[in-house]
Known about the structure:
The structure holds two protein chains of two kinds.
Chain A: H1 4-15, H2 19-58, H3 60-63, E1 65-70, H4 86-99, E2 111-116, E3 120-124, E4 127-136, E5 144-148, E6 155-158, H5 159-165, E7 172-176, E8 185-193, E9 213-215, E10 220-222, E11 227-229, H6 232-241, E12 246-252, H7 260-278, H8 283-291, E13 297-300, H9 302-345, H10 347-354, H11 360-393, H12 403-433, H13 440-447, H14 450-467, H15 470-473, H16 479-507, H17 516-526, H18 531-568, E14 572-575, E15 590-602, E16 606-613, H19 615-618, H20 633-642, E17 648-653, H21 658-664, E18 667-671, E19 676-685, E20 697-701, H22 702-711, H23 716-719, E21 721-726, H24 730-740, E22 751-752, H25 753-757, H26 760-797, H27 799-807, H28 812-848, H29 865-892, H30 895-901
Parallel strand pairs in A: 4-11, 6-8, 16-20, 17-19
Antiparallel strand pairs in A: 1-12, 1-13, 2-4, 2-12, 3-4, 3-7, 5-8, 7-8, 9-10, 14-21, 14-22, 15-16, 15-18, 15-21, 17-20, 18-19
Helix pairs in contact in A: 2-9, 2-11, 2-12, 2-26, 9-12, 9-26, 11-12, 14-16, 16-18, 16-28, 17-28, 18-26, 18-28, 18-29, 26-28, 26-29, 28-29
Chain B: E1 9-20, E2 23-35, E3 40-44, H1 51-58, E4 66-71, E5 74-75, H2 81-91, E6 92-95, H3 99-102, H4 109-120, H5 124-137, H6 153-165, E7 171-175, H7 183-198, E8 203-206, H8 210-215, E9 218-223, E10 226-232, E11 235-237, H9 250-253, E12 262-266, E13 269-273
Parallel strand pairs in B: 3-8, 3-9, 6-7, 7-8
Antiparallel strand pairs in B: 1-2, 1-4, 4-5, 9-10, 10-11, 12-13
Amino acid sequence: MTTLRPALRRLRLRLVPVPAQALGLALLVVVLAATLVSAPLMVAGAEQGAWEQERERLGETVVGATLGSSTQARRLRPGDAPVSRATDFADAVTAAARQAGVGRDGLGAPTTFTRLMDPMAWFAPGGAGPVELVSLTGAAEHVEVVAGAADGTGVLVPEELAAAAGVGPGDGLTVAAEGSPDSPELRVSGVYAAPQAPYPGFWAPYGYLHRPVWNPQSGNLEYPPPVVIAPLDLAVSTAATLDRDLFLEWFLPLQPGLPVARVRTAVGAVERLQVTMASPDSAVAQLLDEEGYQAPVARSGLPTVLDRVDTTRALLEPPVRAVGIGGGAAALVLVGAWAAHRVRRRDDELRSLVVRGLSPARAALHAAAEAALPVAAGLAAGGLAGWALVRELGPSTTLPSGALPQALAFLAAGGAAALAVVALVTAGLTARLDSIGSGAAAHLLGRVPWLAVTAVVTVVAAVPLVVGDPADRAGRIDVLALVVPLLVTVVVAGALTAVLPRLAVAAGGRLRGLPVGAFLAVRRVLAGQGAARVVVVTTALSLALVVYAGALASSTARTVEVKAAVATGSDVVVPLGGQGATGLRPPDGTAVVGTENDAALLPGDTGTDVLVVRPEEVAGVVRWDDGLADRPLDELMADLAAYRGDRVPVLLAGPVPDSLLEATGGELTLDFDYYSLPVQVVGRTAAFPGQGSSEPLAVADWDAYVAALETAGRDPALVLAREAWVRGTPGAALDSLAAAGYQADPARAVRTAAEFAARPELAAQTWSLAYLRAVALAAGVLGLVGLAMHAVAQQRRRTVAALLLRRMGLDRRASDAASGAEIGLLAGLAALVAVLVALPASALVLRVLDPLPALQPGAVFAVPRAALAVVAGGVVLVTAVGSWLVGRTARRATGGQVMRDAT
Amino acid sequence: MRRDGGPAAACEGLVRIYWSPSGEVHALKGVDVVVPAGRLTAITGPSGSGKSSLLRILAAQDRPTAGRAEVAGHALTGLSARRLRALRRRHIGYVFARPPQNLLPHLTGREHLALAARFRGVGRDEAQRHGAELLDLLGIADRADHLPGQLSGGEQQRLAFAQALIGRPALVVADEPTSELDSATTGDLLAAVHELTRTGTTVVMATHDPLAAGAADQVVHLRSGAVAHEEVAGRRLAVIDGDGRVQLPEEALARFAARRVLIDLTADGVVLREPS
Lengths: 903, 276
């Protein structure tokens, strides 16, 4: 123990001679490591997050693989009954999937689904009706059996069929098909309750078996035939007996919770399965050959989904990397500042060693050795923090393990760079200590007007942002967009701090009227030179980054929301068949609108689209942003409905010159080549929900528009394409529309706002800016911590002066007030510069960051209230904490020691 | 110490010019000084007289702009920064004016000596032996395991001397080592330094302190970057440089208001007289 303690002491002196300094470095390295590690993890997390988002949006059916075939032979030989070997066919495909090892690559075992190609009917003493005979692996486990039980030889019938046919468990259900002499009897093993919309996961792909459809001829909803669930063998034998062919479908679900890297292998697994089945030796190929079955064709939305995921990653990677590297570089600068601070704090020690022959290289080596332990601790803590933050706050909680080696490489590089920076800065400052006076180069550099040079560089760098076309940049966040606002901040903060001493001269004797504490604080701030100026500039820089990132992130979120609302009208847009026009009443929360494209607005011949709405339906359905017009939506709709002239009242959305409206008094014409409609503009908006392009949109009142069409001899039902705008989810929207008698147009896809917001460009930009905001927040914290540390260092420098002031009668409260006011003034000054520069800068940059410039409206600015609150809170906090630290430092210095150490 | 009988340091026609934004500053204007080995030499003079510049050159921290400076047998002119550092490391000890400047707050006295010995390339055993001798000689052996904060100002400066002396450098340069000490402590320290010179150590120190100057074997008085006079064994000597220039003492200079003299060479000396 007696030998161990000195050895430990020597070790501590060598590695951590000044623990407080080591702690400061460790904290800086935590930020450095967290920033560096988070960049590759963020990219990997975004890739995974994009995949999870797509999987949730599209559902299991799309991301899984489906193989489709039928027993209908490509060629038929006399006496052939290919359907009888359908079970072998199903087994062969299942075996091929097993042989291809699809389970190894993330796909589940195939479920087999069969359905008779032609209708079948049931007969009973009480009646008859159509029936759908299906077999589906696992179906019996995913229905509620209300009577009897599923077994391997009988069928499950729905409650409605059981009641209509008067059958129950153990009874027989007779079925027949047109043209078939046989009427096999199916033994009923159980009765089940048919699944109801919205259909649960298992039944989602097969919802069409249960969902009613609108019959335009009868005007009623038509329910599909009851679904009888049979084991595969029984379904095949029944089809064979009835001489009917079967549709066969195998669904290979994607295993849940797969990381995106394994999802990629699943694409390969599907291809491998195709190859396995095509092999001449395979049972599938032999059956295809012998029975002439249709070769199973695989279809999966997975490649398309992965393309979108890759696009998201490709768009996100450059800005995230730029932010990560920028943040890392900034952290390294702070590490350099720490090294310089270390030299200054230990100036006496270093001078005493330099006069004894300490070389810069050796000093650098000592510094690096001292820094090794804090750097290692900081790397470990920062790496973990970065990983945890990206995992908890990033796009996905699952971080692909493939990103780990790159993250560790970044971490190691960051650690090496931190040590190198400490060594280089120490070597440089030691060499300066070792030289007398300053050299010619230092004189030359000292004469350079750095502020003016930075201002010129800023102006030159800002030109592309000011004159750039948003369409050329397509929303890319590049280095220029990141650096220019920071350069502007440096110039403004630098100029302001340069002016402060002149203000002190101008203020002259007027300051003497202030209370002592306030007087000291104001004089200290106004006389701030050197380090004080640097602190104001760096704090302004870090806070500007917080405001700038906050403004960009909140504005982008608002822009995405507004564009989604404009592009898709409402949550769900369901294109309707033409029959939807006749006398139906849309369900609550739904607006039925008409669209007509390719009109020309006269005079001016401006290409214009037309949206026809019923004003009373629109409110509550569209997602309106107040920034779209200078009046509320209700007022605009009321104006549309209240017009009583002989023209069609319209709201004009998008880029139409005001001069056109002023010259015509708003009386324009919509020209459709074969006919034209006179319109009266009753309001203007920047954009309107449903405006899917950059062309202007005329929003017309339904009744007036239809009347004008009829006057022009046109059939509104033929001219207007109709769509329903519905709030809620697509499934619920389709169900409610079907219940109300509307039928979706199968030729046109349902669109959703969520789908719009999930576009790779938007997701990538949203995540990039969220990352920028996180890094900026860390920078802001460091900036404020730096300010507090500067205040403490100033107090140490002023120890003698402070003691003398106290002995001259300055009480402790006034002294503390002066320190607090000084910190508050410095922080407030920095925050003021940050806000005054960052808000206009973000508004300027936002214009060229529009992720979808082809869609109206342009990028919308949102005041970053949260970021401003954070900055204000930070200023208050640093003032309070800094004052406390300064006060504590002052109280720790004893008068005797201070005077003894004073020169 | 030098064992060849030569001086520990010698300067001839030493000129040092600094460049500053406001122009050139001529700190030394042809200084001739010889620092004899095994003696205590004091350099005195008012602020701005060139004491610090001369001291830096003697401590091999700086090179002269012109002239010749030789320290521990090495001419400084043309010496690279690396060689200059090596010279400092092996042959020169240095003591700052303020005790905290000389010592590291987290090392004990003994650890200071060990670190200094390592710098000088002295073996561990030799360092321990010599360190113990120095601590004894300077009267701080019982304080060897204390941190600087636990030592008095005088003890700290003694420790600083011990640190500068370990490994027996040819020259110890001290910059006003007594400026922060009271007169009793100064007396103790000077006595200890005298003991050191008796063992062959050469010490040169800049000082404003008459007590310290009085204790020196030789005093070099600088004025406006040149040697005003020297005092050796209580006698004041004017210095004549290689070109025949001599600086008169202030009181002698005051006699020649016209700044012109007649020089008479006599059998026993040179007489300067005001022209009549």
